[in-house]
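Justification of computing resources. Each target in the renewal requires a structure prediction run like the one illustrated here; the chain below, 321 residues long, is used simply to show the kind of job we budget for.
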Amino acid sequence: MAKKRPQTKAKQPQLKDGEIPVVGAREPCPCGSGRRYKACHGRAAAHAVTELVQRPFEGLPREGDWVALRELVPAATVELKLKESLPEGVPSVTLATVLPMAWPALRRDDGSVLIGLQNDTASGDISRDLADTLQRALTAQPGTPIQGRRAPADGPRLQELLDPEGAFEPVVHSGFEFWVPDAEQSTPEVTASLERANAAAIPTVKLSGVDAAYWCETPDKNHLRWVMPYPEEQLLDALARLHAAGRSNLGEGTRLVGSFRAHGLTVPVWDLPTGVTADDVEKPAAEFAERLATALASDTPLAPDERRARGGLTNRQVTLS
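Resulting structure tokens:
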């Protein structure tokens, strides 16, 4: 048999980093290194889009409400104001907790845009993913849902697109009727979908006297979940001081039961008796906010009973994101 002639590889063009295109993860890297893309220039690209941003809504107006709408509130909408003028034919942009079919966004027939907040995102930066979805929705054809995708690593974030002085006033709904502009013209399928979504929604009310506090009703008991903007260690110390002094409740029969972390913020949770409504906790919540401000200002070391209270709160803490 004749010997096989040695194969020679053509010299690959040497590209600069800024010129490296994105290819399949298992394909040869276009830089000519001979390695697969995922092990070469793809490594940095993957890291850029998957690195977790702990506080994706930091810097946006009412960060606590962004967190609450992402994690706590079933049905709510907020009209968003952009830094730049809206494109012609786009009358408004509205943030919604959930959209039909879990769409990331929807350009309605009238040209208005709805953005879904509670969708899974492809990268570690929710803000960048939402900004990418928003930009695509602004130029989509009316009547078109927007599909999810991985946002470019160098794409803008919401903080770059939204007006930092714009109001952020969530409107909490009892159901998802905001999905359909004209419910009377809905098809039976849409009506059935709305009924299923509404049946699963937990009744929720936003308190008016304090920021980012949401009452909700469940079959066994009611709850107040309050997204707070303070540094976690300082907040836990303050809550422990109040808890040890018997001043952490919101009235008779209520109890601070713990907290959870969500998107870089701490969310204390109170159990409320079934009969306690959102209106009933408005005044106690405002009074608690005053007690908390005093406790937050204290820098004295925790007493033994306060350390025990802090340990109990920490042991009951859960991380959602």
